[in-house]
User: Fold this.
Amino acid sequence: MHVAILKGRGDFAEWRDPARAYLMAGVEPERIDWRTAGGEAGLFSDAPTDLPAPSPDIPAPNVPAEFLTLSQAVICHGDPARFALLYRLLFRLARDRNVLDMRADADVAQARRWAQSVRRDCHKMTAFVRFKEMPLPPGVVGRRRFIAWFEPDHFIVARIAPFFQRRFADMDWLIATPKGSIIWDGAELLTSDQPAEKPDLTDQTDDLWRTYYASIFNPARLKVKMMMTEMPKKYWKNLPEAALIPELIASAEARVIDMAARAPTIPPSFHHKLRVPLPVQEDPAAEPESLEALRAAARVCDRCPIHCNATQTVFGEGPAQADVMIVGEQPGDEEDLAGRPFVGPAGRLLNGVLAEAGIDRGKIYMTNAVKHFKYEPRGKRRIHQRPDKGEVDICRWWLTREIELVKPKLIVATGATAVYSLTGQTSPLSQMRGESAMGNGITLFVTVHPSYLLRLPDEHKRAEELARFQQDFQRIAAISRGLPG
Ligand code: URA
Assistant:
């Protein structure tokens, strides 16, 4: 009997080298006892793996590429039986290259299940790692540093490390797990297979995650089973937003009933002909000379048909001489009812990101490219509809006057409609993202609209895009700090 002792922490070469030696010596799977150091073979952890000499009659193994991919995933699985399973498959493949095609074969099926479980674990890690910023020691200048804690099921740390390096290349970070850690300092990626201790990681980013999660949670679409598959309970303890889940589920039914009761009654299409005529500006061409006069004039705007079904004009708000102006697309359902911009789900997400970047919303002038809510009635719900170019062109008159009166030095355009209204450009947002000069000494900063983040169905993509949005606002904060006083 041969005894092979491995650390068994996801290192493929550690298994491959002895496996190749046993194979080339013709050792049958039943004659190898694969053990993990520190596991059931703790006593043997320092003993060398005994490797037989290769037999001259056995050629070097040539396995299908699919086996390599499969075994590199399976080796990360936490079950100690994985080494023996892979060797059995390797031994059989050396005699029949088509073994992996036998999907019903017990070994093949087991290997595929384990590889799938490892891939799922990797996917969950990319979606559920939550970085926390570690302040630099006083007096130290350098890149921002982050730390995260995650508890994987399998030994996936080294396998997933390149993903995090690619995705978060521009900051320094450490991801600690009970199954090893990854460190990136902008130059070198280091992985360790040593178990780490859970650090204490609560900070105000947790509130942001909770705000975000509460915003995207739609009680009317709740499917508890699917939710549990997407975000299994075992991950909850390290996800700040998970604390909200029991209450959100418990209150979902009542919220749906309440939403239905509060749903707007859609007026018949001819209602505007019947309603009391609004006071009309004496000279509609006259340009109001103050923001207040402009706001009053906008209240009765009927330049385009969107006003017909909207509750009211949602004009910009904020200091009359703000340095920074944020421009959105158009008011949503909640803004239409409240008469104020960015007070619904997108606004709540934006508020969290602003606060996290140290930007005081009270000092910003918030407005929209279009001042009325455009929607399509569906049952009792009002479904947001993007304003078309013609409507944005008509409404630009108001935005241009707002810019002339407020005189911002930095304008943040959130989303394609705002960009089109401000620049007339329709290039993809990805090409315009970031800062540029807009003329008249104004800096334009283009970013995505917060609703875009709220609509992303994929957890992992959403976390990534949220991080980019947060970075944009860190940059916006830096630009606004450097604006001339
Ligand atoms: N989306 C916007 O673009 N503006 C708002 O005011 C609210 C949601």
